[in-house]
Write a structure and sequence with these properties.
By secondary structure, this protein is an alpha/beta fold. Helices cover 37% and strands 27% of the residues. The strands form four sheets. It has a seven-stranded mixed beta sheet, covered by helices on one side. Strands 3-2-1-4-5-6 form a six-stranded parallel beta sheet, sandwiched between helices. A two-stranded antiparallel ribbon has the order 8-9. Strand 13 and strand 14 form a beta hairpin. Helix 7 crosses helix 10. It is globular.
Length: 334
Amino acid sequence: MMAQPLGIGIIGLGTIGHIHEATVRSFGDSFRLAAVADLDEAVARRLGTEAGVPAYASGGELLNNPAVEAVVIATPAETHGELIEEAATAGKHVFCEKPLEVDVQRIDRALAAVEQAGVLLMVGFNRRFDQNFEDLGEELNAQRVGALISIHIISRDPILRGPPRQIDGMSGLFFETTIHDLDMLRFLTRAEIEWVHVQASAPVHGQAEVDTAVTFVQMTNGVVATIDNSQAAYHYDQRIEAFGTKGALVAANQTVNTVTLSDAEGIHAPRHQYFFPQRYRQSYINELHAFCGFIKAGVEPRPSAVDGRAATAAALACHRSAAEARPVPLTEIG
């Protein structure tokens, strides 16, 4: 007999929340949408009516619904810790969008609640589930380029209406963009981050808020890395190069199609995928299926709570490095 689909509640119906909601509603064999919640009650009610599920104005109300077996937390970063604690106390498994939090003490309190409740917690670093980056990682593990020497990650967003928002008084660039790349370094190198050194500026928006940064990273296994982040005006730029003693691996940008035009003026290629909902759509699907699989198997999810804490600690170190113009070892963060 086929197991019943997992009942999932979604808390937070912004862009990421809508992506997860669409995924859950599209794959009824593995999971089903059980409830939705958002501080904008009208948004929640509209989606709830459309999906035929209960809608709430707060995560706490949703967590009281017995049909909800697991929750997707897609609210602003600074609310994650409290919601994880509430979900764990309610006995719900948790999928939390990155960052796990923006404060390691709040993370530790949340993780203690998760452990005490015996529920599972997975962090939404969806790029681990991108086929290109997964394949690159497998090639590295097979030592196809020999011993890994360095990694260069380019992760630039299209220009937005304003600079990255501040989160708890810190630059959102490090917690919404750089944090993905910090996690990717740990994922690809299978090592920890030893220290970071950030050079940051604001050339795109011309304001004090950081919108461009280059981060130098030393890994504990000797690999050196650079992360190049910015809000670029032209497209969504997502590339990785891994350089080793016997060669290099490159994961290139994806375009909207593979059709090129050759004429007297040159060779014309299609545009890159516009932004993360388009570029990483399949990875969001893949990660939720993985979350469901971890729950059904009763095994610790990956990316784990440990991965989420490590990435937040590294992002905090990046903020401190940019603010104080110096290298910051991860031991300073705790």
